[in-house]
Amino acid sequence: MTHQATQPWWKEGVIYQIYPRSFMDSTGDGIGDLEGIRQRLPHLVDLGVDAIWISPIFPSPMKDAGYDVADYCDIDPLFGSLEDFERLSAAVKDAGLKLLLDFVPSHSSDQHPWFLEARQSRDADKRDWYIWRDPLPDGSPPTNWISEFAGSTWTFHPETGQYYLHVFLPEQPALNWRNPELRAAMYDVMRFWFDRGVDGFRVDALENLMPNPDLGDNPPNPDWVESMGPARSHLPVNIKHQPEILAAGRDMRSVANEYDPERLLVGEIYGTTEQLMKYYGENHDAFQLPFNFLLIEAVWQAEPLAGMIRAYEAALPEGAWPNWVLGNHDRPRIASRIGAGRARLAAMLLLTLRGTPTMYQGDELGMENVPIPPEAVQDPWERNVPGQGLGRDPVRTPIAWETGPGAGFTTGTPWLPIDPRPEVAVETQQADPHSMLAFHKALLALRKREKALTLGDLTGVDATGEVLHYRRTHQGRTLAVALNLGETAAPCPGTGDCLISTHGTTTGDLAPGEGRVLAQ
Ligand code: GLC
Fold this sequence. Notes:
About 25% of the residues lie in helices and about 15% in strands. It is built from 16 helices and 16 strands. It has helices at about 10, 35-40, 40-45, 80-95, 115-120, 180-195, 245-255, 275-280, 295, 300-315, 335-340, 345-350, 380-385, 425-430, 435-450, 450-455, and strands at about 15-20, 50-55, 100-105, 130-135, 155, 160-165, 200-205, 265, 290, 325, 355-360, 455-465, 465-475, 475-485, 495-500, 515-520. The strands form three sheets. The protein has an eight-stranded parallel β-sheet. A five-stranded antiparallel β-sheet has the order 12-13-14-16-15. The protein has a three-stranded antiparallel β-sheet with strand order 4-6-5, with no helix packed on it. Alpha-D-glucopyranose binds near residues 204, 205 and 330.
């Protein structure tokens, strides 16, 4: 039996997140766009990823960088037009890649025609497409909930005398997924893009899909410290992970299953491992890949990592496919979290664990957080809660394709500063066989050649001192992975031919920060 014919592409594929504002600007306005992505597709083919997920490109007032959608079925002029989208989509297919878009179901923009209508009056047709509640007798908000970006989750609308709910900014009113008409309209949005050849969605902020104000106040968080940000001062038990989300997840999956081959749904969920596992659905009938962010929160030491990997694998429902994420547009860059010298080790871990990996653009270049001067801040989170390191601009800076002004990213002024160091530029790294980019290409090529790294079993996950090691086995072929997270050289557990090393050394002790894949 060959597995190949029966496995969906995403089990062996690597997903690459494109943050469109910062990938490539083709117009000179300093902001990346769809035509820019099309022009730079060769980079992704050369790199060896299989699918791209593009963060939101829909019409938006851009209060939250496009995660405030004013029309789910069009393209924001900043990024191009529907024709540009068609052209990009065709080019992606020609390049042999899959295309995932970002579906933002939990809230729209306050400029979406649905919300404009809903706020007209209490009897407006679409009033119930959003979540409205009366003030408490003293006029205060219906619950004590705090929004992700600080402040109450409730904004008063004086004209109709009620508060509306928003888990994020006031300009991002929460959609009411308990309303069947709203749900039907959102499923049609999915079909709109599936009909245009989109291979799947990354589904935004899923744990927030069905907040339940009728459950009342959230309890205070006894472990809260200020650096966690205001939203974490309470435990959001009545906002997040409400059980009804699962029914909506099943409906979304049914829509995905109307297509052949079935479309992929990747869920963005922050929560405990136990909460996460529920999003696969009871019979694998919800999200094929609920994002696993454990590596984003991880302690980078061998023993805790080994324990974390084993616990995640053990918690997976029977037959569920794992996945791993190292970074995204919301979290500090991996190279900044664990140090540039360790970023290769992290890439080797991501690309050799069992499960679909998602890479964030620029991590293949070892990009680091770029300091943003106060006057250049764009992220509303940083504006609302300044100076605490919550802002996300440092991880959203444009890719440097070349060295020099504009960095081959733009002919204009980039919307965020570009890291000026020549060593992070694609051009520089292409010319260097030892660059981070070259390392990623080699690693991705190895992953493609060796089924053990994609479809293989994962066994022997353990730590010896500061060396994390495990095996991947498929049809009699076993590869061993050894990663030295320590500060000193350590014996390489296991023997065999070294297929790739972070440091280029193939025998002897593992240097500090060195990882190897061995064929056994
Ligand atoms: C998700 C996005 C984030 C956005 C938020 C609200 O977490 O990744 O960027 O701010 O949802 O839509």
